[in-house]
Design a protein that fits this description.
binds uridine-5'-diphosphate-xylopyranose, six-stranded parallel β-sheet, oxidoreductase, UDP-glucose 6-dehydrogenase, 6-PGluconate_DH-like_C_sf, Rossmann fold, NAD, 14 strands, EC 1.1.1.22
């Protein structure tokens, strides 16, 4: 049986919310803290400030062990483990902004109880931040000599859209600390995950063949580096696939076939090799930029990573050039953009390739009609600077369009009958960046990333 610990989670963004709810589900007593009063009030009403599949159900199933507050004094003194999960958004130079981490460390320090408490950093922070947090706590703790606290780095690797499965059935749990007692407490906290002794929720079933996660214990700074290196490597893998995709287009090879062929090599592996409009989201851009900027501080260049970022920027223009090759002058044309979120099953718009696509099309004088199954309300708030119209459905977006661009592989778009030209399109031209349209589709022209452009004359204009 799980020994229930008292846990405080500071910051209720993606990482903090997921962590708080998951730990409560595993049997711990959890308080989630955020300085954003509005967010906390939402959570107190049982509402979620973000969309993540099944998180609402997990929240309901764990609610007896969860509470939400804005008050450090009510959250910190009782906690055995305190997680820092605040944001580290990039500054203009690429370095992460650590102001929120500093605020959290200071407020935590002022409320420590003098007994052994473990402060865990889950935010992605540059190597050395754990030490810096420890020094901040030392500085701000009231009556420091009475306080005993330990700092642990515990990076998370969950993906948005599959966050619950990734948290309950992780490949590995990384715990970095320079004190064994800190690691011991976290092992105790994660015991139900480490030996998978919890009832798997029906809505997030344990994957076939999954047994238990690897426990990786390291020094504080190695754990901090693991997070960056993991994300940088994944970003690199995708940029590599995108770079090869461009060459495939030149020599008339097909990237889908190529990545299938190389992915079976176990040293390469099939995942994160899908070519597309480039990676987006809150992590890859931020973490690659941060790593490059950390290197710069030491006069150390990172040519491979720098190139991966460059390829990603170039990749966002590929869609536009394919469109231009077919439609020539884009000014005055009407183009449907399907999918705005940076990937399916989330309403997260951060660094979404669709943003750059819409911005560029609008600059070129295109009339853009965009649709997303869940991200439109958020886009209304965050993309007010872009010129586009919203469509209530994919069908509505495509009506009268000269072309449709699929930017996010939502299931809903896979279910469209692509065997005939969508009704009312002026041209049956689809630019499919995510391989949503089936291969055997016979309608008009379907262009993909990493495959040579179809003869523009093949494009039929439906009657
Ligand atoms: C990522 C990491 O996967 C996760 O481990 C880390 O903790 C946070 O960052 P996330 O940003 O949620 O997670 O999304 P992910 O599924 O990794 O996708 C990132 C971007 O890469 C998306 O824009 C996606 O469309 C793109 N992608 C992914 C590709 O273009 N090709 C691929 O093969 C895979």
């Amino acid at each position: 049986d799980t020994k229930a610990l008292q846990v405080a989670v500071v910051g209720t963004g993606y990482v903090g919310l997921g962590t708080a709810i998951m730990l409560a589900y595993l049997g711990h007593q959890v308080v989630g803290l955020d300085v954003d009063q509005e967010k906390v009030e939402m959570l107190q009403r049982g509402e979620l400030p973000i969309y993540e599949p099944h998180l609402d159900q997990l929240l309901q199933d764990s609610s007896s062990r969860l509470r939400w507050t804005t008050d450090y004094a009510s959250a910190i003194p009782n906690a055995d483990v305190i997680f820092i999960c605040v944001g580290t958004p990039p500054l203009p130079g690429g370095q992460p902004n650590l102001a929120y981490v500093a605020d959290a460390a200071q407020s935590i320090a002022q409320n420590l109880n003098g007994k052994l408490q473990v402060v865990v950093n889950k935010s992605t922070v540059p190597v050395g931040t754990g030490d810096w947090v420890a020094r901040l706590i030392e500085e701000y703790a009231i009556d420091y000599h009475a306080n005993r606290y330990l700092v642990v780095s515990n990076p998370e690797f969950l993906r948005e859209g599959t966050a619950l499965g990734d948290s309950l059935y992780p490949d590995r749990i990384v715990l970095g600390s320079d004190s064994p007692a800190g690691i011991d407490r976290l092992v105790e906290l994660y015991q139900p995950l480490l030996d998978q002794q919890f009832e798997a929720p029906a809505y997030v079933p344990r994957p076939d063949g999954y047994t238990t996660p690897q426990l990786v214990t390291t020094s504080l700074s190695s754990a901090e580096m693991i997070k960056y290196a993991a994300n940088a490597f994944l970003a690199l893998k995708i940029s590599f696939a995108n770079e090869i995709a461009g060459l495939c287009e030149c020599v008339d090879a097909d990237i889908q076939e190529v990545t299938r062929g190389i992915g079976y090599d176990q040293r390469i592996g099939p995942q994160f090799l899908s070519a597309g409009a480039g990676w987006g989201g809150s992590c890859f851009g931020k973490d690659t930029a941060a790593l490059i900027s950390i290197g710069r501080e030491y006069g150390y260049t990172m040519p491979i990573l720098t190139a991966a970022v460059e390829v990603n920027q170039r990749q966002r223009q590929v869609v536009i050039s394919k469109l231009q090759q077919h439609l020539h002058r884009l000014k005055g044309k009407r183009v449907a953009v399907l999918g705005m979120a940076f990937k399916p099953n989330t309403d997260d718009l951060r660094d979404a390739p669709a943003h750059d696509c819409i911005a560029r099309l609008a600059d070129l004088g295109v009339q853009v009609v965009a649709h997303d199954p869940v991200a439109m309300p958020r886009a209304r708030q965050e993309w007010g600077h872009l010129r586009y119209q919203e469509a209530a459905s994919a069908a509505e977006a495509m009506r009268g369009a000269d072309a449709v661009i699929i930017m996010t592989e939502w299931d809903e778009y896979r279910q469209i009958d692509w065997s005939s030209a969508p009704r009312g399109m002026r041209n049956s031209l689809v630019i499919d960046t995510r391989h949503v349209v089936p291969d055997n589709c016979t309608m008009g022209v379907v262009e993909r990333i990493g495959r040579r452009l179809t003869d523009p004359l093949a494009m039929q204009v439906p009657a």
